[in-house]
Amino acid sequence: LALRQALHLVFKVGNRIKAATFYRDVLGMKILHHKEFEEGCKATCTGPFDGKWS
């Protein structure tokens, strides 16, 4: 079984500060790219993602 590494991950979260703290400090992940948008994400299939960081 070959191990694979994810090339790209996207996390849609309600509170980006708490989420970033968890992923960085608890799981040991690094934020490699950060992008903010003028309007929130139009996708609402799994929750209300209406923040600029959505």
Secondary structure elements and their pairing?
Elements: H1 16-26
Task: Report strand %.
Answer: under 5%
- Give the terminus-to-terminus CA distance: 35 Å
Major sheet attributes? none
Unreliable sequence segments: none
Mean pLDDT: 74
* Multimeric organization: single chain
Question: What is the CA-based Rg, rounded?
Answer: 13 Å
Strand runs, count: 0
Please provide the ordered H/E string of secondary-structure elements: H
From the helix content, strand content and strand pairing, which structural class follows? mainly alpha
Helix content: 10-25%
Shape by Cα distribution: extended
Counting H and I runs of at least 4 residues, what is the number of helices? Answer: 1
Q: Can you tell me about this structure?
A:
This protein is mainly alpha-helical and 54 residues long. The chain contains one helix and no strands. The model has no long low-confidence stretch (mean pLDDT 74).
